[in-house]
TrEMBL record:
A Pfam family matched in the record: YgjP-like
Protein name: SprT family zinc-dependent metalloprotease
Domain (YgjP-like metallopeptidase) ranges: 25-219
UniProt keyword terms in alphabetical order: Hydrolase, Metalloprotease, Protease
Enzyme class: hydrolase
Length: 230
């Protein structure tokens, strides 16, 4: 593995990945972290890889601009708490306090992202537990436990022994999105698949869900632009 850099404003760093299975060069831009990866067959020289990247530079810059840069949640910035843009203020005291129009986080300023992350995780745990309890009661099946992670590939999961896992970043989404994900994973307690019977179960305990799933597909990746020092 190596890297290439396309000069310009700003320069673009490209991670090179060689693959014995690759038959041609391919370029991928991650919507989660903005990383650019160029996969190429084993014997393709780096000079060809650079020429390929230059040929795709306009496409790359266009998509990087659409994605936007990463956001450090610190004083004066805002986060989409429960789907509502909420300003972050530096405050005195020892605990995070949510006001109607802002969220106050105690300093020092450089510790705001980490302190805010801890508070968001606890809020997510509370809301997701409430939602999971509700849908499990609707379903008539218990779950065994809930864990929170900062997953990139999925918003939740359910194991065969009834353990539910959720991304704590769901607290950044509108409540109806968080509720849908909770219902989705609880429905797996009855149907460990994505068959029609599974989706019928989601509909039965939650109601219509397609709008919420579409929202996640369109906006979910953007929630990973917020960097909390993790």
């Amino acid at each position: 593995m190596g890297t290439l850099r396309l000069p310009g404003t700003p320069p673009i760093d490209i991670l090179l990945r060689r693959s014995a299975r690759a038959r041609r060069m391919s370029l991928r831009l991650s919507q989660l972290d903005g990383r650019v990866t160029l996969t190429l067959p084993k014997r393709v020289p780096e000079t060809e890889a650079l020429a390929f990247a230059r040929d795709k530079e306009a496409w790359l810059r266009s998509h990087l601009e659409k994605r936007g840069g990463d956001i450090l949640p610190t004083a004066g910035a805002a986060i989409p708490l429960r789907g509502v843009e909420t300003r972050i203020d530096l405050a005195m005291g020892r605990r995070v306090v949510l006001r109607p129009d802002r969220i106050e986080v105690p300093g020092p300023a450089e510790q705001i992202p980490a302190r805010l992350r801890g508070w968001l995780r606890e809020e997510a745990r509370t809301r997701l537990t409430q939602a999971a309890d509700h849908y499990a009661a609707e379903l008539g099946l218990p779950y065994s436990r809930i864990t929170l992670r900062d997953t990139r590939s999925r918003w939740g999961s359910c194991t065969s022994d009834g353990a539910l896992m959720f991304s704590w970043r769901l607290i950044l989404t509108p409540p109806e999105i968080l509720n849908y994900v909770a219902a989705h994973e609880v429905a797996h307690l009855a149907e460990m698949n994505h068959s029609q019977a599974f989706w019928d179960t989601v509909t039965r305990i939650h109601g219509p869900w397609k709008t919420q799933r579409t929202w996640l597909r369109q906006h979910g990746a953007g929630l990973h632009r917020y960097k909390f020092g993790d």
